[in-house]
Amino acid sequence: MTIDAILPLFAAVPLIVSAVTAINPWKPLNDALAIAIPALNLAGGVWLFASTTANGTIGHVLGLYQGGVGISFAADAFSAIMLITTMVVALTANWFAIVSGETESRYYTPLTLVLITGVSGAVLTADLFNFFVMIEVMLLPSYGLIAMTGTRYRLAAARMFILVNLAASTLLVMGVGYIYAVTGSVNLAALRGLAAGNGPLTVAAGIVVIAIAAKAGVFPVHTWLPRSYPSSSAAVMGLFSGLHTKVAVYMLFRLWVVLFDMDPRWNTLIVVIMVVSMLIGGFAGLAENSIRRVLSYQMVNGMPFILVMLAFTSEDPRRALAAGLIYTLHHMITVGALVLNTGAIEETYGTGRISKLAGLARRDPLTSAVFAAGALSIVGFPPFSGTFGKISVVFAAALAGDWRSWVVITAIIVASFGALLAMMRVWREVFWGRPMQHYPAALRVRSSLMAPSAALMVLSLAMFVAAGPLWGATTAAVDGLLDVDAYTAAVLGSDPIGVPDAAEFQGGSH
């Protein structure tokens, strides 16, 4: 068996184990598997990153069919680093679910493992239709997770989550179908550069991009996210924050490089949408009444910081995409830490409403320290990963030296100020002030509940300290993303069939 043949196992193993946990009634085994499976995929992701960095992109077609036919998987350093970080978040979220008692629900563990199946398949597939399939594999367990956990408003939140994602999925499969109708293929490598200048294919690809952007929570289709995520449990919101929206980021980056060939004609539209999204995400949290609702707008705020970098690939694509990627990694780790930290507070005090909490800095200094660290990181203060993330984005934006630079950098500063105000409001109301009188004096957040979020913040600190190696890893990942020749060769092989003739698409005609 060749090395590339293991790629399908990243999706197959979690799916098989999910079936085992669904029929197994022994909770300790299920809890162990809830940790072991993301840890196994994490270790595999590290191996993939090392292998692809050294040897280039690898690809595999199930059944060893000829290139261009069959279910294709591919891994480069970019997909590997995304797999690593999603599995870190999944592992810590499942860890929190175990210590908080979330896994007492019989089907919690199998549903999370099916979600991990979809995530792993989505970042390794080389086919747009199979990406849609993996998105649905992610969504089906998510419907159950958001409905079975969290507050009494969970059913209304689940309805919102289901309706938006069903609509986006319908749009996604329509776009994929239109791409197939125009080109006769949905293999990413076979579609290389075809959306740059071809009218019908650009429209079809645009439908796909709109659907994925809706799933990412980008303006103007962002309001579903802060309405639905906070109504689930903290463990589920932690999972969703690091997996759902970031898989969308992964595919938007891949489509921009491979399908659109980084077409500069879209730069202005990207800047306008992302700047508005930054400002809304930065300030909308000021009106929310619970900690996790404030954090949900920090998720909305983070997405445009990442995606606006697509508008700066005309000048230095390597620098711009690496900045977007490093901010993605920071955002996954930091938001995950803040959500799980808030979950520890909710598990202890029975509420996450800002008006019902006060004085936690005296009562729970470790909890307060982790939240303060996460808040500093999300705003961009040292010594945490957000500092280097925002500096990288600002420097990449500045390279253009035109109106885009001025507009985007100004928006980053203003939106970061809004995020600072939102986090300061939470800190002032929840952590400062007089100690709460209506809770027992001995009640404290358990260290076991704090450990997952503290571990993520230690990782955020390590990302700041090891900024040089981290930048080297992200640039290596972006080099893999930009090496479209290697990606095409790995996916299609030396003698592909069913591949569209690029000459037919020159000048926008088919």
Mean pLDDT: 89
Query: What structural category do the secondary elements indicate?
Result: mainly alpha
Note the main sheet: 2 strands, antiparallel
Poorly predicted regions: none
Dominant shape: globular
Distance between the termini: 41 Å
Beta content: under 5%
C-alpha Rg (nearest Å): 22 Å
The ordered H/E elements are: HHEEHHHHHHHHHHHHHHHHH
Number of helices: 19
**Helix residue percentage:** over 70%
Give the strand line-up of the largest sheet: 1-2
What is the number of E strands? 2
Features:
510 residues; mainly alpha; two-stranded antiparallel ribbon; 2% strand; globular
Describe this structure in words.
The chain has a domain of 218 residues. It is built from 19 helices and two strands. A two-stranded antiparallel ribbon has the order 1-2. The radius of gyration is 22 Å and the shape is globular.
What is the structure about, briefly put?
With 510 residues, the protein is mostly helical. It contains 19 helices and 2 strands. The longest helix is centred in the middle third of the chain and has 33 residues, at 317-349.
Give the SSE layout.
Blueprint (H helix, E strand, L loop, with lengths): L8 H15 L3 H29 L2 E4 L10 E4 L1 H23 L8 H17 L3 H21 L5 H30 L15 H18 L7 H5 L5 H26 L7 H18 L6 H17 L9 H33 L10 H4 L1 H15 L5 H14 L4 H29 L15 H19 L1 H16 L1 H9 L18
Antiparallel strand pairs: 1-2
Helix pairs in contact: 1-2, 1-4, 2-3, 2-4, 3-4, 3-9, 3-12, 3-17, 3-18, 4-5, 4-9, 5-6, 5-9, 6-7, 7-9, 9-11, 9-12, 10-11, 10-16, 11-12, 11-16, 12-14, 12-15, 12-17, 12-18, 14-16, 14-17, 15-16, 15-17
